[in-house]
Design brief:
- The protein has about 140 residues and is mainly α.
- The chain is about 55% helix and about 5% strand.
- Strands 1-2 form a two-stranded antiparallel ribbon.
């Protein structure tokens, strides 16, 4: 599974803010850390802010701070703000010839769709089971 750049940036940002929930960070600080455009990151952080993951802080030293509950917020919660896991896929088997004993293109597409749907559901279940706090613990263990 490949997640979009916005989604990966949102996950990294949410974890960055959740690791220091009392600290306020500017868009520029986070953008520099992840080597991304501040303009691009600002769009991602606004989406996280509208969802209640982050809280915008106004003023000269404005920025964002974590506003959610890291024990309850899952990876899936963040991912679904930016994309849909399990979107309908087409197998692309058009034009396949039907021979004796070989499945037709429609049958192949249907069988592949079932497999892809199962994979998507496994991914959703996994992302749903991992909270930001769990990820922060994993990151901490890897540092040691």
């Amino acid at each position: 599974m490949k997640l979009q750049q916005n989604t990966l940036l949102a996950l990294a940002s949410a974890l960055e803010f959740a690791a220091q929930p009392e600290r306020q960070l500017t868009v520029g600080e986070v953008a520099a850390r992840y080597r991304v455009s501040a303009h691009h990151l600002a769009k991602v952080l606004r989406t996280l802010g509208r969802a209640g993951v982050l809280e915008a802080v106004r003023g000269a030293r404005g920025g964002y701070r974590f506003a959610a509950n890291a024990k309850r917020l899952t990876l899936l919660d963040v991912i679904e703000l930016f994309e849909e896991i399990g979107a309908t896929r087409r197998a692309g088997a058009r034009g396949a010839r039907r021979s004796e004993g070989v499945a037709g293109a429609g049958e192949i597409e249907a069988a592949l769709a079932l497999v892809f749907a199962e994979i998507d559901e496994l991914a959703r279940a996994t992302f749903r089971s991992i909270t930001l706090q769990t990820m922060l613990r994993l990151i901490e263990r890897r540092r040691v």
